[in-house]
Amino acid sequence: RSAAADYLAQHQLPMQAVGWPELATLDWKAQGIEMEIRPALEPDKVGITGAFCAIAETGTLMTLSGADTPPTTSLLPETHIAVLRAAQIVPAMEEAWARLRYTYGPDRFMPRAVNFISGPSRTADIEQTMTLGAHGPYRVHVILVNEGG
Question: Where are the beta strands (DSSP E) in the chain?
Fold first, then answer.
């Protein structure tokens, strides 16, 4: 099985997910996951995305909004799984912004939103009690693919 299927089974989560178009070529069915390539809707429990890059210093994912990278897929479901290549990891926030500026250059429009995901959503706003999943997923799991290794 795949790392995503193993994670879902280990946590007794549904083997159904929604995902970004860049993940459509992977054989999810052979891994036991029913994947729909579309933005997430409120009832979806698992969203699988890529990421623009990951920031090693803080363990943060940087995602960009766009037609093929809808933010709802990482924000609405209770579980967010991100799949990225080792080459997408940068040392610090400054390198993430530099990579974004280089990729989009002066002749392209920047994405409408840049999201930073550093783990499950959490807040202690109500009576100083920690609550997970208040403004996003309860669980965030990163699958790192080491190409050529």
Answer: 16-19, 34-37, 46-49, 53-55, 60-64, 79-85, 89-90, 114-117, 122-123, 131-132, 139-145
Integer Cα distance of 19 and 143 in angstroms: 14
Per-residue tokens: 31: 């891994």
pLDDT at 138: 83
50 is written with which tokens?
A: 């890529």
pLDDT along the chain (149 residues), means of 10: 92 97 95 97 97 96 96 95 96 97 88 88 64 71 83
Number of continuous H segments (helices) and E segments (strands) in the chain? 3, 11
Count of Cβ atoms closer than 10 Å to residue 115 Cβ: 18
Per-residue confidence (pLDDT) for residue 30, from 0 to 100: 95
- The dihedrals phi and psi of 46, each to the nearest 5 degrees, come to -135, 130
SS3 assignment, position 106: coil
> What is the distance between the alpha carbons of residues 138 and 70, in angstroms, rounded to a whole number?
19
